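for the recovery benchmark. tokens below, seq after
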């Protein structure tokens, strides 16, 4: 067994990478990327929103999000409009074609669930909850490394 197979970080990396590849296989016939798909899902469920709030929801920076939204707008899935109150604020809305894609892509979550071996919604919910707990813990480690280093008795290296 390779050494990396014993690391939590590598197991997460490999699962993320492979899951993204599975989405790519399902989305390729629609000429969509995974980030475009999750943008559509967010707009389908949460409705029209600002580029800023969409970026926060998807954890994407504007350098990634803006060109992606431009491609989605060129494909006819979304529109971007500046608000009259503040020209700096851009709102993203689904077009009729973007709304119609929801039905065309309805099979994607079912395929992912089947591929993951989920037998019901509770299986998926358990994994999602565990991953959210992990994400929160890693954010805490990222934001407060000294506290975690001290808790495990590790030295803090100074530059």
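predicted aa per position
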């Amino acid at each position: 067994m390779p050494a990396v197979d014993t690391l939590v970080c590598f197991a997460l990396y490999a699962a993320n990478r492979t899951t993204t590849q599975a989405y790519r296989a399902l989305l390729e016939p629609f000429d969509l990327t995974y980030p475009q798909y999750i943008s559509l899902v967010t707009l389908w469920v949460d409705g029209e929103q600002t580029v800023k709030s969409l970026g926060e929801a998807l954890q994407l920076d504007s350098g990634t999000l803006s060109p992606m939204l431009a491609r989605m707008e060129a494909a006819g899935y979304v529109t971007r409009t500046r608000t009259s109150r503040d020209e700096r604020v851009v709102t993203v809305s689904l077009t009729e074609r973007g709304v119609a894609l929801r039905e065309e892509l309805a099979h994607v979550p079912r395929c992912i669930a089947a591929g993951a071996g989920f037998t019901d919604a509770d299986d998926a919910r358990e994994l999602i909850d565990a991953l959210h707990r992990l994400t929160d813990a890693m954010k805490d480690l990222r934001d407060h490394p000294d506290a975690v280093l001290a808790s495990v008795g590790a030295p803090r290296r100074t530059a």
